[in-house]
Every structure is written in structure tokens, then in C-alpha cells.
Amino acid sequence: MSADFATLTDLTKDFEALDIRVDDNKPDRIVAAMNRPEVLNAIDQTMVNEFHILCHWLEANPRTLIITGTTTPHPKDPSRRRGIFASGADISQLRERRRGDALRGVNSQLFSRIKELPMPVIAAIDGFALGGGAELAWAADFRVATTKVRFGQPETGLGISPAAGAMWRLKELAGEAVALELLLTGRMLDAQEALDLHLVNSVHEPEELMDAAHQLADSIGQQESLAVQVTKRVFQMPPESHPWADELGQAILFESEAKFDRMQAFLDRRKK
Predict the structure, then answer these.
(1) Which residue in the list 38, 50, 96, 135 is annotated as catalytic?
(2) Domain range holding 104?
(3) Tens of pLDDT along 157-175?
(4) Are 203 and 75 found together in one domain?
């Protein structure tokens, strides 16, 4: 195991809510599987804390991150398994939170930190992605989903409003009319609707989900890492930052050794 992965394994060995998977054959990525199937992967404080530890490592050791869920016995047929991404915040904890807790932005700060990781974040989604679970998916750079996926923002039905990104990320992704309908009605989207609205990049059968996520990570891994990081950082900047930010990012990359090596390799291939 690489030294970096050994450090990560040591940091995460006592995790309770996240299952961190590393593979020396795929050193450019980390898989974080939410693993609280008994409560449909409700996002509690323990999971938030563990995500922060993982983010801290990824900020110092840039890797593509794949976030996924787990499976749980099907309620109508325990012999079958069904996928679950995240059913939202833990309602038992959420009920006890007061205004001071809201102002701390427990989930919103975490999801923004995930969004701002140096390398891309892929959400591999099966089953329910509701409330905070949906907001976690909206914070990812890419979303690959299964035919069984269900997205929803049920907060207004619980007497609260979304506060971890859906108010503005969903509007950016799907447009104001669609976002407002989902936010104010609590209506759930199925896989085809999510695909039609460009909320997911692709849809697959459940058994093909992780292969699809890894194929996307493979495509990213073929690119030059610094170029990917600069492109992601500049892409996320506000409109008033362009074109200056684009030019500044390009200036950095123009001086990188990888740029010279990759362009020379391209020219050498063209000569053959």
C-alpha cells in the first residue's frame, strides 16, 4: 500500500458511518460509501465529522472522490437488497436542533467543502437521495445514477426549508421553475426525469453503477492532474472573475512540465 493510502487508512480505521475504500491499482481515486443502512444512511453528526476528516486528507492529497451509499434488505422481500444513497439528515437529531444549530451550517459547510475539493467529486447514486442526501448529490461535480434512484426535497413537509445547497444549486442545475416546484411540493423525481432535466450525467442498472462511476474516474485520470485541478477551480469562480481567472489559470499551466511533455508526446505521435 502506498504511503499516502496507509496514512488515510490509519485516519479512517475507526470510522463508523463511512466505509473508505482504496485500491493501489487505482491510486487516483478514493471511494467513500455511506454505511448506516439501519437508518437509510441518514446524515448524522458522526458522518459529518468523518467526511470532514476525509476532506482534510483530500485537500492535502488531491484525488478524485466517489461518494456512494450501501444496500439494505427490501422491506417487502428481505431476501432482496435495495440500494440507498442517503435519506437526508437524521430526523431524531434534526428535531432537536435550534436556530443556533442552523446558523452553524452543519451540512451546508460540509457540502461546500466537498464541492471545493481540488479534484472532481462523483456521486454514484442508487435508491433514495432525499433532503440532505439530495443536497449532497447536488454538491458533487458529476452524478451517475441507477434506474431505481429517487430524488426529493421533502423539507417543507417537515416544517423547515432546505439549507444545505438545494435553494441555489438546484436552481443552477435545473432552472428556477423546476427547482421551485421540487422545493415547494416535495415531489420526487425518478431516474428518467432526473436525466431529462440534466440532474444526472447517466443512468445505469444497479449492478453497473460502480463500474460507471469508475469509468468516469478513469477518463478523468487520463488527463493531467494539475490541469484538471486548475480547470475545476476556474470553472467554479463567479462570472465577474472571467476571463481574468481563465487567463491566470492558463498562465500557471503554460509553465508546467506536464504541458511540455504531453504536447511533445502529441507531436511525436503525429509524426509517425
Answers:
(1) 135
(2) 3-221
(3) 988 899 899 999 999 999 9
(4) yes
